[in-house]
Amino acid sequence: MTYKCAVLGCGGRSQGHAEAYRHIDRGKMVACCDINEDRLNAYGEKYDISHRYTDLDTMLEKEKPDVVHLITPPTLRVELMTRLSDAGVSGTIVEKPICIGADDYKALRELEQNTKTKFIVNHQLRHHPRILKFLKDVEKGKIGQVRFLDASAVLPMSGQGVHVLDLIFAFSDYAEVETVFGASSGYDDINGTHPSPRTAETLITFKNGIRAALQAGEGAPVFDKSRPNWGHKRIAVYGTHGFRHWWMYGCEESVPNLVIKRSEHDYADQDILGQARLTNSLFNWLEDENQVSPTNLKTSLDEWLVILAGYMSTVEARPVDMPFDPPDNLLDRFKAFVGV
To answer: Which residues pair with 190 in a beta bridge?
Structure first.
C-alpha cells in the first residue's frame, strides 16, 4: 500500500520530513499546507508537491490524506491535533515538543484516550542507525544490566532536552518512573512558543532500579566548541559489564579486553535515515495494531510528565512521586518562582 501523506507547516523543520521520503517506498507526499503562501509555494516547488493549500480543512476534504506531518509551533498542538482526529486522519507525526505546560498536557491525555488517530511524536533520534545498534546491544546484554543513564543537551528542555529524555526512556526499556527530583533556573521562551528553564537538571528513578540524570540548557557538556549550540545532544548508558556513549557526531563503546572503541558519523546522514525509519514505524503501526510506534503519543506524554515533575520539584524543593496530577498553572508557578 502507498500512503497518501501531507505536510501541515512548511517551515525549516519540515525540510527533514520531506527529505526522508527519498528513503520511503510506502508513502508519497501529495499535498502541503501553510498559511504563508510564499513559504508554501517555495516548499511545493522544492519537493514537487503540486497540491498546495492555505486552509487545513480544505486540504483534508479534498486530499483525504492517510498521514499528516504536523510541523507547527507547540502552542497550536491541541487545536490542530483535535481537528486531525475529528477529520479521521489515520496517522499523524507531530513535531516535538508535544506540550508547553500542564493544561495542554491534560488536554492531549484526554485526546489520546478517545481518538482513533495514531499519533506519534517526531523523536527521529530514537531511530538513528547508531542508536538502534546501541539499543540492540543493550537488549542482547552486551553491557550487562543497565544501571545508570546520563543524557544532556545544550539547547533547553523544550528545544532538545525532550529528544534525549526520549532516549532515556528507550534505554530504560520504557520502565515506569518512580520519582523525579529536579533543579531548574532561569526562563527562556524560544520564538514565544518553546518555554523552558534556561538550565534544568533532573534525576529520574525508574521502578526497575535504573537511575538517570538529564541536563538541558546552560552548563550542559560541550564536546566541540566549533559546533553550534544545537550540536551537543548526547547519552551514555552504563551497565554492569560495560557502556555505550553516543553524541551527535560520534560514539564510543566498551569492548572485551578493556578496550574502548571510538568512531565518528555524519549526523545529517543519520538524521535523514532516522526520520525515514520513524515515518515507516507509523506505517507499520497502521498496518499492524501490535507494532506500536515507540514514540507514540501515550509514551511521549509520559515523558512530558517527567518534565512537569521537574518543574514541580523545583518549585516545591522536593522529590515528586510518579505519576502525579500537575496543576494547570504549573508553568506559571515555575515562572513566578524563577522571577519572570
So the answer is: 194
